[in-house]
Design goal:
- This protein is mainly beta.
- It has one domain: Jelly Rolls (Sandwich).
- The strands form two sheets. The protein has a five-stranded antiparallel β-sheet, with no helix packed on it. Strands 3-8-5-6 form a four-stranded antiparallel β-sheet, with no helix packed on it.
- The longest helix has 16 residues.
Length: 113
Amino acid sequence: MKYLIIIISILIINIFQEPKVVMLSGEQVKIKVDTNSQLISREIQLLKSAKITKAEGNCNGFWIQKETITVHKFSKLEKSIGTVLKPGKYTVYPILRKNQTKAKIKLTLNVNQ
């Protein structure tokens, strides 16, 4: 019985120490050439720091905003891997390629609890 309690305790501790995965995504749409683009992003609030572990998209890089301030800008998706975002509210927006009218970006973040 004693060993069973120890094993269950260790499993519970390990479950709570696993990183939490959070997604941050955005898109940019340009309806007509030489017009303003529409920026769309699902805002997330981080209560703890989070590390970018994956970046996917059909864009020419992207930028990350904390509140209304651009805090990171990447010309290549893979260069963002490992970047740590501190607690706060974030949005992300893709950079359109030449002659592109719609682009998306999706980031996977690991939040250590």
